[in-house]
Design goal:
This protein is mainly α. The protein is 75% helix and 0% strand. The chain has eleven helices and no strands. α1 packs antiparallel against α2 and α3 runs antiparallel to α4. It is elongated and about 65 Å long.
């Protein structure tokens, strides 16, 4: 909270003294809001930036998306994502991962998979965080087949499979009543020496 207060004072001082604010200034304060769990203030700053002459970039959008993701505000996250697309700002792995994670927290597995497929279509780099968030979204809603497809895609893409990814797939199988599949993946984990 202290970091946010300090940054907000600096931003206000710049505005009052007619100093030109840039994307970096706004992004830093929005990011501070995200870290302080002040997603509404982050969106307020993002909105005031969008109304100013300062153009939003992927870093600013990522900071705002992350603020909403941390608060579990998946709908706001999708609104920001839509604004990025309309504003022709290209999403990166950080933005996609935060948006997928927000959908996962909201139990919106279909939205999470849509964003994941969009990420693949846009040829954005996927990492274990992205795959794990998408698999966790499927796991929470007992979509075991989807979780296994993601795990398979993760293996094929040569992204290092980790315990989180396997646990999400195994848990999805368990919730879907597919205990044989869950046991099979426990065996795969052992063979791959996933720790």
């Amino acid at each position: 909270k202290h970091a946010f207060d300090t940054m907000f004072v600096v931003l206000s001082w710049h505005e009052i003294n007619n100093y030109e604010l840039n994307c970096f200034h706004y992004s830093a304060v929005i990011n501070a809001c995200a870290k302080a769990s002040m997603w509404t203030k982050a969106l307020h700053l993002f909105s005031s930036m969008a109304q100013s002459t300062v153009k939003c970039d992927v870093i600013t959008f990522s900071a705002a998306v992350s603020a909403c993701e941390k608060a579990g505000e998946w709908e706001k996250t999708l609104e920001l994502f839509s604004m990025m697309t309309h504003g022709k700002v290209e999403s990166d792995m950080i933005t996609f991962s935060a948006a997928i994670s927000a959908c996962e927290k909201g139990g919106e597995w279909e939205q999470a998979l849509y964003l994941f497929s969009m990420m693949v279509r846009n040829q954005a780099e996927c990492d274990f965080i992205t795959f794990s968030a998408a698999m966790s979204a499927c796991e929470k809603c007992a979509q075991w087949e989807k979780a296994l497809c993601l795990l398979s895609a993760m293996v094929k893409s040569e992204v290092r499979c980790n315990t989180i990814a396997f646990n999400a797939a195994i848990s999805a199988c368990d919730k879907g009543g597919e205990w044989a599949e869950a046991l099979r993946f426990l065996g795969v984990m052992a063979l791959r020496k996933v720790a």
